[in-house]
Amino acid sequence: MLLKSQDVSYCQLVRQFGNTSEIVDGVNYQGNLFVKGNAYPLAQRQIAITEMRRSYLDPEPAIACLLVEDGEIVTIWYEDRYIFKVAEGAKDLITYFSLAQLVNEMRSPTGVKIENRSQSFRLPYLRCFIGREAVDWISARLAISRPYAVLLGQRLINDNWLRNLSNKEPFEDNDLFYQFCMDK
Predict the structure, then answer these.
(1) Could you write out the DSSP letters of every residue in 52-84?
(2) Would the pTM of this model clear 0.70, i.e. be above it?
(3) Start-to-end Cα distance in the chain
(4) Could you count the other beta carbons within 10 Å of the beta carbon of residue 163?
(5) Other C-beta atoms lying within 10 Å of the C-beta of residue 55
(6) What are the two backbone dihedrals, phi and then psi, of residue 15, each rounded to the nearest 5 degrees?
(7) Each residue of 58-73: pLDDT tens digit?
């Protein structure tokens, strides 16, 4: 798809490779995030189109691509579902991640196990998950250590995305129940 620069939003993204994360250039187009590929002078647009088609048709599964014209440059952008948009004002690894995107992924069918749970003859807690399982999921999904996953869980509490159902303030890597605030 050939687009003009005003058709996309330029942004910074966090990409994970194993146990490391890096900040990369990206674009947001219709809610999908794309990472920067090769750039060509406008005069070589046909070469860029050929490369983009090859990238889309060759791999299994196909990778969505954009070709964005910005002044005298055309750049290929590749869709990547394993990246996160950098949050505004990010200063360290924990503040890089967009909490809205993280919460959407955590609540998805491939996210943390959310279910009704009960504890020692009490009424059931509805639509909740276990802190330890959330730490497992966050650390595996974002390729970060367990202590960083706990810090990210605490950021979710601090920013009112989730709450501890035992009314304790800190997020912990244990069997306590947590619930997304939107699931109350």
Answers:
(1) HHHHHHSSSS---EEEEEETTEEEEEEE-TTEE
(2) no
(3) 42
(4) 20
(5) 17
(6) -120, 135
(7) 656 667 889 999 999 9
